[in-house]
Write a structure and sequence with these properties.
The chain is α/β, with parallel strands linked by helices. Helices cover 23% and strands 36% of the residues.
């Protein structure tokens, strides 16, 4: 999920750290059909690289929270062009 952000744990000089990096390539976001509604269909949309989408923001916040709980230093490789801010993102509760 949230494929425009990559999170993980690594070692730098033997010291464990948390890492957050930006995906620079365009990725596809697949939203599955709602099994409770026969009228819905699976939808596929593309997400540009280096953009912070609502799911990316949630994944980043969750990773930062997890690294903090584990007491890990955090390294962020950020080259975000910006965040996706429009009517759809307002609907997705980002703004």
């Amino acid at each position: 999920w949230a494929r425009t952000v990559v999170t993980g744990r690594a070692r730098l000089g033997g010291i464990p750290i948390g890492v957050i990096a930006v995906e620079t390539r365009t990725v596809e976001k697949v939203v599955p059909a709602d099994p409770a509604s026969p009228d819905t269909r699976e939808s596929v949309s593309s997400q540009a690289g280096q953009v912070w989408y609502p799911d990316s923001a949630h994944k980043t916040a969750q990773a930062i929270r997890d690294f903090d709980r584990e007491g890990l230093p955090l390294m962020i490789f950020a080259n975000w062009r910006g965040f996706s801010g429009g009517m759809r993102d307002m609907f997705d509760e980002v703004l």
